[in-house]
Amino acid sequence: MRAPARRRYTYHDYLVLERTANVKHEYLAGEIYAMAGGPRAHAALAANVLSELGPQLRGKRCQAHSSDLRVRVLASGLATYPNVTVVAGHAEPDPEDANTVVNPSVVVEVTSPSTEDYDRTEKLEHYQRIPGLSAVVLVSHRERCIEVISRGDDGAWQRSEARAGNAAALPSLDATL
Q1: Cβ neighbours of residue 175 under 8 Å, at least 6 residues apart?
Q2: Over the stretch 3-49, which tens digit does the pLDDT of each residue have?
Q3: What's the rounded mean pLDDT across residues 79-92?
Q4: With a threshold of 0.90, does the pTM exceed it?
Q5: How far apart are CA 31 and CA 76, in angstroms?
Q6: Please, are residues 162 and 168 in contact by the beta-carbon 8 Å criterion?
Q7: Were 64 and a residue from 51, 53, 145, 160 both cysteine, which residue would form a disulfide, CB within 3.0 to 4.6 Å?
Q8: For the chain, which domains are there?
Q9: For a pLDDT cut of 70, what percent of the chain falls above it?
C-alpha cells in the first residue's frame, strides 16, 4: 500500500493561510513549515540587534524591521521571516504580496538549537540568491558571537566573526553590532 501523497501548496495558498494563522510559517517548494516561537532569550537577542541598529540607521535611507516582515527569495521561492531585516532605500514588494519584501540589504538570524544547522546551510544559500543582499548576520544562541557573511565587491561571500567585547562590522550600512 502506498502512502497518501502529501499536499503541495501554491504560494497563493500559503499567503491565504498566513493571513489567518496564529503562528508564522515558512514556505518553500510547495511545502509550508510552522516556525516555532523562540524562548525569551531568543527574542531578547533579536530585540538587542534592532535596538543597536536603529540609532545607527537614523538619517540614512535604511530601515530595520522585526520578524514581522516577511522576505521572499524570488530565485528560490523561499518565503520566511528573518529575526531582523534591513532594507536600504525603497522596499520592493513581492509581485504577489505587497506585505512581503524581495530586496533586503541585510538579514539577521538568531540561531536556536532547532534551526542553527538550517540557518547556516540551506537558508543561508537561499539568502545568498537575493541580488542586492549585502550581508547575512548569524547571532549565536550558545555564545557571545556574531558571524557576518558579507558579499564583497567581486560578488564573493566572505565570513567574519566578532566575539564578546568586539564589534561586528556591517560596512554596507556603515553600522556595527
Answers
A1: 53, 56, 57
A2: 656 789 999 999 999 999 999 999 999 999 998 777 899 999 999 99
A3: 98
A4: yes
A5: 13
A6: yes
A7: 53
A8: 38-176 (3.90.1570.10)
A9: 97
Cα 69 to Cα 97: distance, rounded to the nearest angstrom: 12
pLDDT at position 37 is 73
Q: What are 160's three cell numbers?
A: 567574519
